[in-house]
Give the backbone structure.
Amino acid sequence: MIARYARPQMASIWSEDNKYRNWLRVELAATDALVRAGMVPAEAATAMHERASFTVERIHAIEAETRHDVLAFTQAVAESVGPEARWLHYGLTSTDVVDTAQALALTQASEIIRSGILRLREVLRKRAIEFQHTPTIGRTHGVHAEPTTFGMKLLLWYSEMGRNLRRFDAAAEDLRVGKISGAVGAFGKLKPEHEEDIVRSLGLKHALISTQVLQRDRHAAYITTLAVLCSTLDKIATEIRHLQRTEVREAEEFFSAGQKGSSAMPHKRNPITCENISGLSRVVRGNAQVALENVALWHERDISHSSAERVILPDTTILADYLLDKAATLIEKLLVYPARMLRNLESTGGLIFSGQLLIDLAAAGMTREDAYRLVQSHAMNAWQNELNYRELIENDPEIKARLSPEKVAAAFDVNRQLSNIDTVFARVLADD
């Protein structure tokens, strides 16, 4: 089912054909290194480079009998090479090929995911600057709190995606590792310098130590990093879903001319992209749990991780790529309604400025306790009886005795609340 979300470039990486091509790259790199070491004749390498090939169908046919995928692969390749194939897979064990080739695939997938992160960051940066000074109400616990700007929301996501990028780069680099250390990691057939030569020629690093497998803490860190990344996308989608609610309607997904929201209710404009992002992010987080379970293997190797990885590695990278693309398009085309934001901000008659009024009264000489009591009593009256809070404040004799009309007006000035927005933007953008 995940294949339906695979974009073409990512899908090609996890195709069977590409898997076997990566296996062949490892085999040929090993042969070349062993030629340089004087262990394999040069004509064998020449024959392999000239003739080595395979078909997926032939590998499947052999595997149906051998019940071993690497043996089926090497037999299929050997059929194309001829007598020199006796030097194919020389000194290697299956996982030398599989884990190293998997590192190649993950490196290829990581390049695509990284480009998706960069695209989303650029879209967030552009739209954050677009709405840098667009006032909106900030909410805590879902309740109106104090003013902010819509650009600040976008800037927050931009900054978070920067942290995701740094974490992803570290996790991807930690997986750009191959191993050719044999059946238990003790180099029973080849030597450490052979491993170093082979993986270096593939553009990988060598593991300092391994068993028959690369240790799965690397893969767990990678998948959990993608889970954190997708949780950020879920966070963005959840915020937009709230802003699209009819009674809020400060922003909403782009709705195309022929799009339909409901089979029964023609008026509906539903946040389906956001809901897809939220739903599929849960799948990625679930895959992270599997990756963590894969860390603990029996002794120098078992294959309990292998079958799970055939699912979670392609599925997680496919979903991360898909969700990054969806999120970038969502933000790029997001419909934003500044007038509605301002209307919502002003809808409580100034209640959202109670905190500023509190500290202004304290600065004017009133005890904080008395100021809080006075400010809150008017707030609760305005809330419960749907009165205009600012009018109640302006007519209160205790407040008039402490604050001039100009100072009361300053307490209710939205621009005063937003005077440091440019500094926050400068700080975040400078961090790049």
Observations:
- The CA atoms of residues 121 and 161 lie 6 Å apart.
- The chain has three domains: 10-90, 93-257+264-342, 351-411.
